[in-house]
Amino acid sequence: MNIEVIPSQARRLSIKENNVETGHAYIYIIQNGLHAKPYALLEDVFVEETHRSKGLGTQLVKAAIEEAKKLHCTKIIGTSRYSRPSVHEWYTKLGFEDYGKEFRMNLQ
After folding, report:
1. 3-state secondary structure the chain
2. For 14-59, how does the pLDDT look when each residue is reduced to its tens digit (9 = 90+)?
3. Does domain 9-93 have CATH number 3.30.470.20?
């Protein structure tokens, strides 16, 4: 087995209110040999419970999309558990489509 290390990048986006972080999101910029340009993986979009329903999550995701575009990504992928249909509806409103299925194996 030959393993090649391919450098990747990550970006952490955050929103603060009165110098206190109220939300954050991560995008991982992934390059693979199948495409000339990378894609982005959106992970851990989180807004503090006391600050939800104020549009902060939407701001984070839109900023993540813009950052991915700036980095010439071909797509951005967001994931969500089946148990969160309201989150799925929210992603759809933001322009994401229900495209496939994620398979996962927890290693720890």
Report:
1. CCCCCCCCEEEEEEEEECCEEEEEEEEEEECCCCCCCCEEEEEEEEECHHHCCCCHHHHHHHHHHHHHHHCCCCCEEECCCCCCHHHHHHHHHCCCCCCCCCCCCCCC
2. 999 999 999 999 999 999 888 899 999 999 999 999 999 999 999 9
3. no
The pTM score is 0.90
Domain ranges of the chain: 9-93
The average pLDDT across 77-96 equals 93
Write the CA distances from 7 to 10, 21, 42, 79, integer angstroms. Answer: 10, 29, 18, 22
